[in-house]
Amino acid sequence: MSLRRTASALGVLAVGAGLLTGCAPGEQESDDTLTLWHYEGENSAMGIAWNRAIEIFEEETGATVDFEERSFEQIRQTASQALNSDEAPDLLEYNKGNATAGLLASQGLLEPLDDAVAEYGWDEKLADSVATTSRYDGNGVMGSGSWYGIPNYGEYVQFYYNVDMFEEYGIAVPTSVDELETAMQAFADAGVTPLAEAAAEYPLGQLWYQLALAEADREWVDAYQTYTAPVDFEGAEITAATQTVADWVDAGYISSDATGLAAEDAGTGFINGTYPMFYSGSWWYGRFIDEMDANWSTFLYPGSDMAPGSGGNLWVVPARAGDKDLAYQFIEITLRPEIQALIGNNGGVPVAADASEITDAKSQELITNFNTLLERDGLAFYPDWPTPTFYDELNAGLQGLVNGTLDPAAMNQQIGADYEAGLPAVAQQ
């Protein structure tokens, strides 16, 4: 996720690295120190849980953890070069999907984890839909092949809403698309922009994808994400999504200012009460608990069985790591009930928790929505995953749509061409 939960232009850099690596790079020497990179905030659910995991790891193994704080952007922009050098860590958090973990796996930069999965039984702890993003074939396409990463949390996208603002304006919480639009119109009539949005980064792309998912089925998602069939960017799913975004901008549900806003702007706008609704990921949950004074709650997008979401970002082990066994031991600790409960009770979505250990009411709500999606086979991944550059290209198309330089047909034509142009870099290596 922030830009945190997207498969972005890192793939462009990684392609260059791949051309330099004809085979798996050499391994560093072990020094009884686990070098760890991740980009979770210290007060986030994962940050809290992983700090405790570090304590347990050092107590039990006698080894030392050398944690190097790296931002998402630092890892996004430089991981391919770092993993192909002597600076490679032993373990890092990395974004999942074809254009990121899949791409680096196909280039020999990540260590296959099949033996460790068998030894620790990780495949038995992860639901199939969560594990989809852990496995990649020889072309870097997710869902089959060797294991290259292990998530210990899940994530998904939903509506957050300001309960106090809904009550102040006498607006009911929507349970259908018609009721959602009625609620947004009521806010707009009162001079309040209903949706916190950003088009310079996510989350507008996630909302666009959700609108397509409302018209889609699993077959369409498989085609879009894993290239099982051509995707028609003039078909009903994408046409409905793009037209609805345009209609919501025209109606004042989305501000035209969103073209210049980042995800942080949208999130803080919701926190401070500028906007009554925010459609974005579960990774915001802990922050809203900590920073939001108003009463707030959540609901899944009405009228759709699917939503953007997946297993969380992955623990991956670089092929050049010097202490791979230590990396595997640390991964195992993060899947223990104690660590999973810390994730769950601090606003995260654990993937292997004992439900009885989740005592926080807000966390129970978050996990209930996630489990609802799992029961529906509703995790549909993210819109930018299919190609290394589609994150930026989709944002550019949506910016044009919001500022009026592209009409819906022109946007669909533009992003459709971008999507097609990017596929060979991922699917035909």
The CATH topology of the largest domain is given as D-Maltodextrin-Binding Protein, domain 2
Helix percent reads: 40-55%
- Helix/strand/pairing category: alpha/beta
* Mean pLDDT metric: 90
From the alpha carbons, calculate the radius of gyration and give it in angstroms.
Answer: 21 Å
The profile of the biggest β sheet is: 6 strands, mixed
CATH level-1 class of the largest domain? Alpha Beta
User: Considering the protein shown, what is the CATH homologous superfamily of the largest domain?
Assistant: Periplasmic binding protein-like II
CATH architecture of the largest domain: 3-Layer(aba) Sandwich
Low-confidence stretches: 1-24
Shape: globular
Per DSSP, the total helix count is 19
Terminal residue distance: 27 Å
Strand content: 5-15%
Query: How many β strands by DSSP?
Result: 12
Number of domains: 2
Helices and strands in order:
Elements: H1 10-20, E1 33-38, H2 45-61, E2 64-69, H3 72-83, E3 91-94, H4 98-106, H5 114-120, H6 122-125, H7 128-131, E4 135-136, E5 146-147, E6 153-162, H8 163-168, H9 177-189, E7 195-196, H10 204-213, H11 218-226, H12 236-250, H13 263-271, E8 277-281, H14 285-291, E9 296-299, E10 309-311, E11 314-316, H15 324-334, H16 337-345, E12 349-350, H17 361-375, H18 390-403, H19 408-427
Protein name: Sugar ABC transporter substrate-binding protein
Keywords: Transport
Family: Belongs to the bacterial solute-binding protein 1 family.
Write a brief caption for the model.
The chain has 429 residues and is α/β, with parallel strands linked by helices. It is 47% helix and 11% strand. The chain has 2 domains: 10-152 and 312-353, Periplasmic binding protein-like II (D-Maltodextrin-Binding Protein, domain 2, 3-Layer(aba) Sandwich), CATH 3.40.190; 155-309 and 382-427, Periplasmic binding protein-like II (D-Maltodextrin-Binding Protein, domain 2).
